[in-house]
Amino acid sequence: MKKVVLLRPRGFCAGVVRAIDVVKIALELYGAPIYVRKEIVHNRHVVNELRQAGAIFVEELDEAPPGARVIFSAHGVSPDVRAQARQRQLQVIDATCPLVTKVHLEAGRFARQGFTIVLIGHKDHDEVIGTLGEAPESTVVVSSTADVDRLAPPDPARVCYITQTTLSLDDTRHILKRLRERFPALQGPPVQDICYATENRQLAVKSVAPYCQLLLVVGSQNSSNSKRLVEVSRNSGVPAYLVDDASQVRPGWLEGVEMVAVTAGASAPENLVQDLIGSLRPYGFDQLEEMDFKEEDVRFTLPPQLERAAGRLTTVSPV
Hints:
By secondary structure, the protein is α/β, with parallel strands linked by helices. The chain is built from eleven helices and 14 strands.
């Protein structure tokens, strides 16, 4: 009998739950319109649902009227964006993931200490753009060992690194190895910047790879952590595909497959996962097994103004 192996943990992380809650609670407390700079999280379905509830998504702050209430997305913003918000007298609610804020604080600390900061990440990602803005004159973005080989810091003894929170563990390990070879005095954060959810979902994929012939990842194409899950699976020798929802699954992918593993990126809702599982049953995948890799119980407090107004203490990551 054909089997679906459903990986756990999967889907929403605590930072995503918090960010979505911020928008929903703000709409309940203040009513529409609530403006959100960029996508609150990188998932098309989540953004569309919040848009229907009254959120207005804008690319830049000048698209919101002066004095409007604006939410910063989970990916964080640069100091310049914060300054622009003050100049326009916007009422800001900051939904930046606390783990991203940690990286911003590290960047500021290293810059004040006179380091050249190597930011490992994807230069066009919203998170990296925001982090780079903390110390643009001192920071260089790298995404490969080749980028490391091109580095020419003014003082090779004063080099440090920080990372995007949603990177491939393996790719980052290779880049760090090369950095340490080139700069033996390299310094970094006391605790890795790659977030717990990214790490757990990648390790879960590695753990199931020996047993399945296909991995389906639920997540949007602009979701960095979702794309990394596909890469991890393919690097383990298992074909993998990233799909927004069940409608994107192609029957040809399932030919000759007896066991398919299913997971979801950290910004993908669980209902999309369940819809995907249901869509596989007509192809004979009637048996469902859940594989637990690690329990997650991470909680982040809401921004102070919402926590007080809503009378809520924490948000909790489901699944």
